[in-house]
Amino acid sequence: MKTAVVYNSQTGFTKRYARWIAEAAGADCMELSEAKKKSMASYEAIVFGGWACAGSISKLGWLKDNMDKWTDKKLIVFCVGGSPMESPEIGSALGRNFKEGELERVSVFYCPGGFNYEKMPAPSKLMMKIFIRTLKAKKDKTKEEEEMIKMISSSYDISDKKYIAPILKCLQET
Ligand SMILES: Cc1cc2nc3c(=O)[nH]c(=O)nc-3n(C[C@H](O)[C@H](O)[C@H](O)COP(=O)(O)O)c2cc1C
Question: For the segment 19-30, what is each residue's pLDDT rounded down to a tens digit?
């Protein structure tokens, strides 16, 4: 199946997953800016990867805006975030990015990435600073919130190639 893996990445985690998927699937891999300049007509499958930003999948609008035109293609979305795979809220957070009916057309997956403050642009760094400060100021924090503060206060990498397996499986299914 001729496949394009298109990604939007700020600090490199989504790009890494996109490359892993493209390499394993023998697909073309490109940044969203490049994909926008190209015709996607010849692809039978499009895999789009965006990073999680306050619950939203970055630049998902590109895929959604084209969905009606791509009725003949297999569509897969993967979201890369800082949350570990076990986080209970991942499924519902991903679901909120789609309207009813859209999920019948798109298969959605989550891949844990991490945080890379060294590569993060200033506006995102500021948003994270405010988020962490607000969370720290909260009274009666849950154990999960305390753990989250510790985790996201500095850079970490929980990405792993193993998380692409369900995406590859979905691509193989006809
Ligand atoms: C402003 C901001 C908001 C974020 N919101 C979330 C979130 O809601 N859920 C999550 O799991 N990760 C969140 N993250 C973490 C990023 O999704 C994570 O660092 C991801 O690996 C970045 O991917 P990239 O390296 O491809 O840019 C957020 C990061 C920033 C900077």
Answer: 999 999 999 999
